[in-house]
Design goal:
The protein starts with a helix and ends with a helix. The N terminus is likely disordered. With 332 residues, the chain is of the alpha/beta class. The longest helix has 22 residues. Strands 2-1-3-4-5-11 form a six-stranded parallel beta sheet, sandwiched between helices. A six-stranded mixed beta sheet has the order 7-6-8-9-10-12, with helices on both faces. The protein folds into two domains: 127 residues, Rossmann fold (3-Layer(aba) Sandwich), CATH 3.40.50; 123 residues, Response regulator (Rossmann fold, 3-Layer(aba) Sandwich), CATH 3.40.50.
């Protein structure tokens, strides 16, 4: 039996340990200066509200990039970070958006690099200005070389390989891979990976800005080669065009796609699309804001020089009902 004094000592030690654990789990406090001029609460900086500019190559109103935007703005609200989001599919225009953010002296920059060479100078100028940059979605191989502190996204080659292997395992033998943006390195990597994982693969170039032509070109490919028994699209909008094209040509080709939106969810439920490769783009918006906040307030980096992967994941009939509720609210 312990004496009353021993019990009091043990209880005191337990309380002290609990206090240490709580302090360790609480994370860095918001930046504010103490009366002595030193950063308060162990914070690495003493600045005011943080501002982060997110500049992507997505088109306005695009369902995929709306989810990225939701992730970034949600993280900003939760962390007290002022987040601005701008996008332009034209590489030259996107570069100017980056230059504008640098001129505004933002505290952090998040950039997608579908066309890295066109953005190189602007990103390097941001780095020279002392603005930490995190790249997302595409341009992973050039990210570190341009001076970014991290990259958040999926490895497009690996994702393509897994998608191709999944179609091959389903018994398919002739794959059509549809590329919807010329010059987008990530899309080329997806189709290259699909060929590695699948085998016989033909690439088809279409223009996402011309939906009628997209469907016509897919129909033409299916009619020209009736042995095509699988179509892999790289965008939800193109996936629905492929479904229509297969239906109108009486093709039995299985349609699969990269990326997710509510329409693709419905098509998976209806058996019109076999699966979607989900890169969980909400994380591509959300995580960089968290990472930049930690970098400013606590000098943290994430990834150890390697990309922070958000995919690939796969959505099919086995899990589509669970994912559907999140896609409907704009977070998947």
């Amino acid at each position: 039996m312990l004496s009353k004094k021993s019990k009091r000592i043990l209880l005191g030690m337990a309380a002290a340990a609990s206090a240490v654990v709580l302090a360790a789990c609480s994370g860095p406090a918001s930046s504010s200066s103490s009366s002595g001029g030193a950063p308060a609460n162990g914070s690495a900086t003493s600045g005011g509200p943080m501002s982060v500019a997110v500049v992507t190559h997505g088109s306005a109103g695009d369902s995929f990039w709306n989810v990225v935007k939701n992730g970034a703005t949600d993280a900003g609200k939760q962390l007290g970070v002022n987040v601005t989001y701008n996008s332009d599919g034209d590489p030259g225009a996107q570069s100017k958006l980056i230059d504008n953010a640098v001129a505004q002296h933002v505290d952090g920059l998040v950039v997608s690099m579908a066309n890295p060479d066109a953005l190189k100078t602007s990103i390097q100028n941001a780095v020279k200005a002392g603005i930490p940059v995190i790249t997302i979605n595409s341009g992973q191989s050039q990210s570190a070389a341009f001076g970014a502190i991290a990259h958040v996204g999926q490895d497009e080659g690996i994702a393509g390989q897994q998608a191709g292997a999944k179609l091959k395992a389903a018994g398919k033998t002739n794959l059509l891979c549809v590329i919807h943006e010329a010059g987008n390195v990530g899309l080329a990597q997806r189709c290259d990976g699909a060929k590695q994982g699948f085998g016989k693969t033909t690439n088809l170039q279409v223009d996402i800005n011309n939906p009628t032509d997209v469907e016509a070109k897919i129909k033409g490919a299916l009619q020209t080669d009736s042995s095509i028994d699988a179509v892999l699209t790289l965008n939800p909008q193109i996936a629905l065009s492929a479904v229509n094209a297969a239906k109108e040509t009486n093709s039995k080709a299985t349609v699969a796609t990269f990326d997710l939106n509510p329409d693709v969810v419905s098509a998976i439920k209806a058996g019109q699309i076999s699966f979607a490769v989900d890169q969980q783009q909400y994380e591509q918006g959300y995580l960089p804001i968290v990472m930049l906040k930690l970098y400013r307030d606590n000098a943290n980096t994430v990834g150890g020089g390697q990309p922070v992967l958000t995919g690939p994941g796969f959505v099919d009939k086995s899990n589509v009902d669970k994912v559907a509720q999140y896609a409907a609210r704009g977070t998947r």
